Amino acid sequence: MKKQLLLKMGVCIVCASSLLTACTKNNQGADKKATPKTAISADVAQKIKNLGFSADNVRKMGSNYIVEGDIMLTPANLSEANTTSPVLRVAETEQYQTHNLVKNLPRTITVSVSNLPTVYATATANAVARYNALNLTLQFQVVSSGGDMVITGFDEGVDSDGFITLGYSGFPTASGDPYNAIGMNTNADAYGSNPDVGYLTSVIQHEMGHCIGMRHTDYFNRNLSCGVNGGGNEGSTYSSSDPQDYPGAVHIPGTPTKTFDAGSWMLACSSGTDRTFNANDKIALNYLY
């Protein structure tokens, strides 16, 4: 998840669209020290493209790679065939599922918070409550340690394009398990020195969405939520009928077919506000789970 901020005369102004959601924050200004990009090899870039993601603005984090602003790809992911990564896409004028999601339903996914301030634990409990209130066959439970998803912290400042990553996660495994890790940025430029619990809740809620197979609502044009430098299309569009295509796009019945839904909790960039499920998000989640 990112957010975009414009810095002018030392004042931090949210300049992403009033739409909200998901992954980054953009800080543009000389008074913030930017984190330089790490160049990736042509081989890695091609593997990322083969998985259906854009190879633009890829950042290296340890031995892993962050794509689309907040999606973690491991070296093992890069070696997978493009049929093994399940992703749900809520995008364009409709909401879509891909060919694989979390399996073995009904199911309870356990979530823990490790080595983060209390406000992150509170936000995690709030995010879990929001999902459970939908009465899905997929439920969540907070545990003291371990579990199916572990939320930890990382410290990373503004990048050279003026964006800051608020959090990251990944997509379910080929066997149907949710992605097992969420990273939340503890850098002061991300949430300030006294993070707002509602704002943290919405980011964790978004990253949990990725873990169960959601793709960014505006994946096809990140500029809708990230501003003019948002990065455009995150990845190629694939056939809705061929199960060998990654990530696939199967329309979810009951979701809009004539208008773009700009209010989803899975937009690529955040305006710095608390955002939860809208009506179409609930329809999609209830259909899938």
From TrEMBL:
Keyword set, alphabetical order: Signal
Highest taxon of source: Bacteria
Pfam family, one: Peptidase_M57
Gene3D superfamilies in UniProt: Collagenase (Catalytic Domain)
Residues spanning the signal sequence: 1-22
The keyword Protein biosynthesis is annotated on this UniProt entry: no
Keyword Signal: yes
Name of the protein in its database record: Dual-action HEIGH metallo-peptidase
